[in-house]
Structures are given as C-alpha cells and as structure tokens.
Amino acid sequence: QVQLVESGGGLVQAGGSLSLSCTASGRTFSSYTMGWFRQAPGKEREFVAGISWSGGNRYYRDSVKGRFTISRDNAKTTVYLQMNSLKPEDTAVYYCAARAGVVVTTTPVSFDYWGQGTQVTVSS
Q: At 88, is the secondary structure helix, strand, or coil?
C-alpha cells in the first residue's frame, strides 16, 4: 500500500505561481511512476504531468508545457509540481497518483494509488 498526501494548493492571481508537493508513504517509492492529474467541476479527470521512477522521463499535457515542471526526490519520497504563469483555466482539484510500473501513462485508470487532492484556484 502507498499513501499519498498532497499540499501546496491555494488561491493565486493569473500569471502567478504555485508549487504542489506530494509525499508518499512506503519504502518502494522509487519504483513507482508518478503523475499529477486535475479535475475541474463538471469535467473529467485529466492528465497534467508524469515522471518516471528515475526522473529521467517527464511528460506534460500540451496546455501546460513550458509553464509546469514535474520533479521528484526519491530520498524524500516526494513528487513536486511547479506551476508558473497560471491561468484561470488551470483552476481544478489537483491529484497526485502512483503507478507500479516503469511506463509513464496518461490515463487515470492505469494508476494504482491516489491522494486526496488539493484545490488550485486561479483568479482572473
């Protein structure tokens, strides 16, 4: 079992920045592929960013490329999402997820563990 706890959400004006963190329990964190997803009211959960176990491979949805950066620190069992140049359309609940596999995927169903989510609100 892996437990994930997100932190760092909040309210920010458009153009601002926020940094999300997700800390995992368990001693096998380094073997998990990690991802960030988001879900806005009335919309499906969507992939935001993913990172391989080593951090060597990173993937982003097109709308956040160049603005968001995913990273991980296996020694601290933590994955991060740095979000810059935020837009109102980035407003959503952001979820951290872990997948017991080496391939970074973008579909929610392929992830095994989820955090409780943290709200990010970007005002215009």
A: helix
Pair type for strands 68-73 and 10-13: unpaired
Question: Three-state SS for 108?
Answer: helix
Q: Report the alpha-carbon distance of residue 107 to residue 39 in Å, rounded.
A: 13
User: How far is residue 20's CA from residue 70's CA, in Å, rounded to a whole number?
Assistant: 9
**Confidence at residue 32, expressed as pLDDT on a 0 to 100 scale:** 93
Write out the DSSP string of 34-83: EEEEEE-TTS--EEEEEE-TTS--EEE-GGGTTTEEEEEEGGGTEEEEEE
47-82 in b/e form (b: 16+ CB < 10 A) is bbbbbbbeeeeebbbeebeeebbbebeeeebbbbbe
Burial class (CB in 10 A: 0-12, 13-18, 19+), 44: exposed
Backbone angles phi, psi at 107, to 5 degrees: -100, 135
- Average pLDDT per 10 consecutive residues for the chain, totaling 124 residues: 94 98 88 96 97 94 98 95 98 96 90 96 97
CA pair distance 10, 91, nearest whole angstrom: 10
